[in-house]
Each structure stands twice: as C-alpha cells, then as structure tokens.
Design a protein that fits this description.
two-stranded antiparallel sheet; about 100 residues; single chain; mainly alpha
Length: about 100
C-alpha cells in the first residue's frame, strides 16, 4: 500500500466515526484494544488508530500529516486529534490536505 492509499483508507474510517483519547472506541464509547490485529468492536477511531487499523506503518502517511500539523503548531497528530478545539470536520480536512500533498510527491 502506498501513502495516498493509506491516507484515503484512514480517512474513510474517520468519516464513519471519530474519537478522542483512545485509538478506537466501541459503540458504547469504551476504548478498544489493538492486540496484534484489528479490534472487531471498533466503530470510531482517532487519527493514529485509523492509521494503525489500515496498517499504514510502512508508508509516509504519519510524516505527511506531521508536516501539515507543524505549520499549525502541533507536534503530533494525536495532539491535534485530542485538542478540545479540534472538530471532526477539521480532522477530515487534514486528511484531504494530506492526500493532496502525498499525491504531489
């Protein structure tokens, strides 16, 4: 999988459901655990959890996101994700920018 594909897959997961302060959450809002596989009960994800779920580790997806977020004074995608000011729309917009940036490489 390349970076663009990883970002698109992660964005699709985030469109379905987004959460804060956990990699993923179940339908009741409880944190899900990643133990060598995908949590089957996950219905929402944070940025990092979505990237983990789509197995983006071998891509530059995280670096592309970090390049964009550094310009907004964030050090890590999780810092942006868990900021109380961050909205679901802002997360999806971040991925739209990241996909465009990754395509330009």
């Amino acid at each position: 999988m390349d970076t663009v594909e990883a970002l698109k897959k992660a964005k699709a997961l985030l469109k379905k459901g987004w959460c804060r302060e956990a990699f993923a959450r179940d339908k009741d809002g409880n944190p899900c655990v990643f133990h060598g596989g995908h949590p089957p009960d996950a219905v929402s994800f944070c940025i990092r959890g979505a990237l983990m779920y789509v197995e983006a580790g071998e891509t530059d997806a995280n670096e592309v996101l970090m390049d964009i977020l550094k310009k907004q004074n964030y050090c890590w995608p999780t810092e942006f994700n868990d900021d109380p000011k961050t909205t679901h729309k802002m997360v999806l917009d971040l991925f739209t920018k990241a996909i465009k940036k990754a395509k330009a490489k």
